[in-house]
Prior knowledge:
Elements: H1 4-19, E1 33-39, E2 42-44, E3 47-50, E4 54-60, E5 69-70, E6 88-93, E7 97-102, E8 110-115
Parallel strand pairs: 1-4, 3-8
Antiparallel strand pairs: 1-2, 4-6, 5-7, 7-8
Amino acid sequence: xxxxxxxxxxGALFALVACGxxxxxxxxAADAATTVDVSKFVFGPKEITIAPGVRVRWVNHxxxxxxxxxxxxxxxVIASKAMDTDDRYEVTFSKEGDYAYYCTVHPFMTGVVHVHxx
Length: 118
């Protein structure tokens, strides 16, 4: 049914898969994003530390809308619209610093992105 060449090709394919060479990320640059989950009226993790140039992605898992906005008195780097369930908002932080943020709908929800060179 299969000739030797076909068996050799299947063996090579199996070896590539076993080594991870055909994984979804093979040959594709790693996603340089850090995810903050919005769940149960909390940003989690509440504080993150990243290098300049890294993207932060907030994902709302709650059944109610939330926003992500720069804290009062800070540069307006973060400013999402209201995010419904499973909506995402992303910001790439290019400058070093500490970026405090909160939900404008639920001001008790707060977090901080620390951007520092490694």
